[in-house]
């Protein structure tokens, strides 16, 4: 009886200690995420320019956002860049992880550093770098195409309607591919080697092992990486602003840039909040759809 009582007291102390350790993180989440989110929701139902009194307008801000052509186009651009960059990052990240998994320790460590290094660079640095690479007249890509006689493939990559969104999405996906690679590679390291030995005895090569062993067993990691990538890819302000500033015209205008312009250039904070809430709903729907697509069986080994 005494031993049970001591165990109960110990468990209670552990729970209290755990709560105390979580308290700072909990307070940070409240003041940096929950309170701003609630304030943003409340503000989206008001008209406010930052100086005068707030005036309740109901869902008028949402109606304006969903009927204004430039705002709808910005939302569509955000969805396009978010989805395409997620696909690019996931495909490249998984391929990089599968390649590195076959290498030795030294070669694998070197390749991990090379593939992961773009993820360590700020988005603005990546954006400025590719502005020079993709410049129409003397950019590295167009110069290389001209040098090998492929002048027909030269484009104004950041100034043409058909290429600007694709270019931004691919660059952003490439930038995040290293993080996806590390997540998938970590999941692969947890797979027991005995499974590969059994597959080898059955005559299965690496490609077949990837299809039947690796990909099914790292499905939870892929699902996590997909959810994280979708959340990251919709935050397109810094990359787009550095590369095109939303141009040419409004061809690459995204919802975050539209929000900031509406709030701080036109002082329409209610409209900007409504755009932010709409974008949050769209991102949540995309994450739910992505997790359902990546849904699969859970294996124990």
TrEMBL record:
<feature type="transmembrane region" description="Helical">
    <location>
        <begin position="212"/>
        <end position="234"/>
    </location>
</feature>
<feature type="transmembrane region" description="Helical">
    <location>
        <begin position="113"/>
        <end position="135"/>
    </location>
</feature>
<dbReference type="InterPro" id="IPR035906">
    <property type="entry name" value="MetI-like_sf"/>
</dbReference>
<protein>
    <submittedName>
        <fullName>Lactose transport system permease protein LacF</fullName>
    </submittedName>
</protein>
<comment type="similarity">
    <text>Belongs to the binding-protein-dependent transport system permease family.</text>
</comment>
<keyword id="KW-0813">Transport</keyword>
<dbReference type="GO" id="GO:0055085">
    <property type="term" value="P:transmembrane transport"/>
</dbReference>
<feature type="transmembrane region" description="Helical">
    <location>
        <begin position="79"/>
        <end position="101"/>
    </location>
</feature>
<dbReference type="InterPro" id="IPR051393">
    <property type="entry name" value="ABC_transporter_permease"/>
</dbReference>
<keyword id="KW-0812">Transmembrane</keyword>
<feature type="transmembrane region" description="Helical">
    <location>
        <begin position="269"/>
        <end position="290"/>
    </location>
</feature>
<dbReference type="Pfam" id="PF00528">
    <property type="entry name" value="BPD_transp_1"/>
</dbReference>
<keyword id="KW-1003">Cell membrane</keyword>
<feature type="transmembrane region" description="Helical">
    <location>
        <begin position="14"/>
        <end position="39"/>
    </location>
</feature>
<keyword id="KW-0472">Membrane</keyword>
<feature type="transmembrane region" description="Helical">
    <location>
        <begin position="164"/>
        <end position="191"/>
    </location>
</feature>
<keyword id="KW-1133">Transmembrane helix</keyword>
<dbReference type="InterPro" id="IPR000515">
    <property type="entry name" value="MetI-like"/>
</dbReference>
<dbReference type="GO" id="GO:0005886">
    <property type="term" value="C:plasma membrane"/>
</dbReference>
<feature type="domain" description="ABC transmembrane type-1">
    <location>
        <begin position="75"/>
        <end position="290"/>
    </location>
</feature>
């Amino acid at each position: 009886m005494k031993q049970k009582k001591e165990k109960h007291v110990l468990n209670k102390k552990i729970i209290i200690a755990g709560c105390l350790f979580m308290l700072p993180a909990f307070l940070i989440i409240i003041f940096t995420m929950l309170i701003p989110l609630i304030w943003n929701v409340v503000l989206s139902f008001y008209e406010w320019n930052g100086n005068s009194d707030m005036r309740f307008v109901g869902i008028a801000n949402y109606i304006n956002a969903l009927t204004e052509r430039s705002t709808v186009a910005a939302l569509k651009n955000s969805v396009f860049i978010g989805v395409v960059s997620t696909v690019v990052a996931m495909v490249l990240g998984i391929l990089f992880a599968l390649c590195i998994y076959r290498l030795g320790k030294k070669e694998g460590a070197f390749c991990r550093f090379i593939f992961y290094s773009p993820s360590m660079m700020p988005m603005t640095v990546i954006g400025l770098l590719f502005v020079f690479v993709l410049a129409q007249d003397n950019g590295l890509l167009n110069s290389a195409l001209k040098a090998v006689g492929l002048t027909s493939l030269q484009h104004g990559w950041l100034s043409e309607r058909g290429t600007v969104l694709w270019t931004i999405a691919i660059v952003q996906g490439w930038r995040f591919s290293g993080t996806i690679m590390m997540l998938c590679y970590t999941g692969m390291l947890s797979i027991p080697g005995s499974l590969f030995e059994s597959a080898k005895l059955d005559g299965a090569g690496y490609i077949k092992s990837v299809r039947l062993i690796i990909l099914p067993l790292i499905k939870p990691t892929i699902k996590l990486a997909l959810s994280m990538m979708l959340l990251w890819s919709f935050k397109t302000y810094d990359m787009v602003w550095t590369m095109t500033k939303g141009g040419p015209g409004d061809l690459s205008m995204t919802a975050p840039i539209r929000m900031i312009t509406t709030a701080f250039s036109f002082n329409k904070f209610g409209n900007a909040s409504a755009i932010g809430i709409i974008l949050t709903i769209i991102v949540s729907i995309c994450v739910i759809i992505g997790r359902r697509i990546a849904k699969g069986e859970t294996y124990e080994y």
